Amino acid sequence: MATAPPEDQRRLLEVQALDTRAQQLAHQRKNLPALAKLTELDGRISDLRASLVESRTRVADLKRELTKAESDVEQVRNRAERDQQRLDAGGVSAKDAVALTDELGSLATRQAALEEVELDVMERLEAHEDTLAKVEGANDELVAEKTKIEAERDAGWAEIDAQVQAIVGERAKAAEGLDTALVTLYEKIRTQLGGTGAAVLNGNRCEGCRMDLPPGDLATIKNAAPDAVVRCEECSRILVRVAGAKSGAAAG
């Protein structure tokens, strides 16, 4: 059976308490409410991204369509202006005058049709721009909310990290001078059992696994020397015997 000074065994509980607190803080860091909120926001932003891309693409397509429609109207208008100038200037034959007059009529009809197309494209573009503005507004709100939550996350992390740093210092002091073999055993058990390597023996209960020890095990522990490092037969943790220990005094 390994041995270690009784005082070192009792001090090991301080180390365990600090390790437990550090482990709790690590859990808090991974489970900050802000992290869940960020995951939710990322999902909403991702869902909105498809609508945003589609809306922007549609607006861009309609702008190109409007540019073409405007160009078509402008070309017809310019042609009509040139024909009218030729008629107004005179110097054309009667036959050419008739042809120009007929063409002006056709151009007027064509221009009216093209202006209808232009107006239709403008109305559709206006509607899609309104939709795009709403989608972009919703996206901007989500991005702003995400930035805010990221700041909350970073602040939460910073606070936890500061506490962990303080615990690291306290832990170093608590472990200073402890029996090397005892600490090595403790670290091995703690790693194997998910964080708790030492616990108080409270009456007949191991406060590590919260199990009542059978009479035979208790008798063995009672008869063990004060410097003997005893372990729970149920969970294998180091059992620290503390005079007057009460229920709930476990270090982990």
From TrEMBL:
Domain of life (superkingdom): Bacteria
UniProt keyword terms in alphabetical order: Coiled coil
Pfam families linked to this entry: CT398_CC, Zn_ribbon_9
CT398-like coiled coil hairpin domain residues: 15-194
This protein's record includes keyword DNA damage: no
Record-annotated C4-type zinc ribbon domain positions: 205-239
Coiled coil: 45-86, 125-152
Protein name: Zinc ribbon domain-containing protein
